[in-house]
Write a structure and sequence with these properties.
By secondary structure, the protein is mostly helical. It has 11 helices and no strands. It holds the Pfam family DUF4240.
């Protein structure tokens, strides 16, 4: 499965879906209809795509959005949510984490006055995307892909810094920081 096919499956799962659970059902069904090797390749492509946003800069942006409540699991699921936004959005954010400030959902979250006001379904995460290939695969997908060294938690690249420092936020993700009131 090439990247175009990967993105096609991810994006087609959104067409007419009522929520993330509905998307997961659609995506699982689409994957289950494919040969086993294609399901494995979907898992590999997800890992490859996710690695592009597995950076300290992206974790910092997710942490600002999530009000400082972005653990390693939270960041891992945030990466999956970002994939779920589709290829165009993903590419923009992969190039610049500050592009998250342009997303309507992120703007909505900022307008709600903090994470305490968010409903569970509002959080920018999509944990279920991590399991969809395994659910569609007939067998032990984890054993099949074990030799490929897929991510099981974040392993960010780049420079780490103090996520709470307003000067760092202003310098690195100014639009997102301003949206969430975190700039100096």
């Amino acid at each position: 499965m090439d990247l175009n096919a990967f993105w096609g499956l991810v994006e087609s799962s959104a067409a007419g879906a009522s929520d993330q659970d509905d998307r997961l059902e659609r995506l699982t069904a689409a994957l289950a209809a494919l040969p086993a090797g294609e399901v494995v390749e979907f898992a590999v492509r997800l890992d490859e795509v996710r690695r592009r946003v597995d950076t300290w800069a992206h974790w910092h942006a997710a942490d600002v959005i999530c009000g400082g409540l972005c653990s390693d699991d939270g960041f891992f699921y945030f990466q999956a949510w970002l994939v779920g936004q589709g290829r165009a959005v993903f590419e923009a954010v992969a190039s610049s984490p500050d592009a998250l400030a342009d997303l309507p959902h992120v703007r909505l979250l900022a307008s709600r006055g903090g994470v305490h006001a968010w409903a569970d379904e509002d959080w920018p995460d999509w944990e279920g995307l991590d399991y969809v290939a395994a659910e569609a695969f007939d067998g032990d997908l984890e054993a099949v892909v074990a030799s490929r060294g897929l991510l099981v938690s974040p392993d960010p690249a780049g420079e780490q810094w103090d996520f709470a420092d307003p000067a760092e936020i202003s310098a690195r993700i100014p639009r997102l920081g301003a949206l969430f009131g975190k700039v100096a």
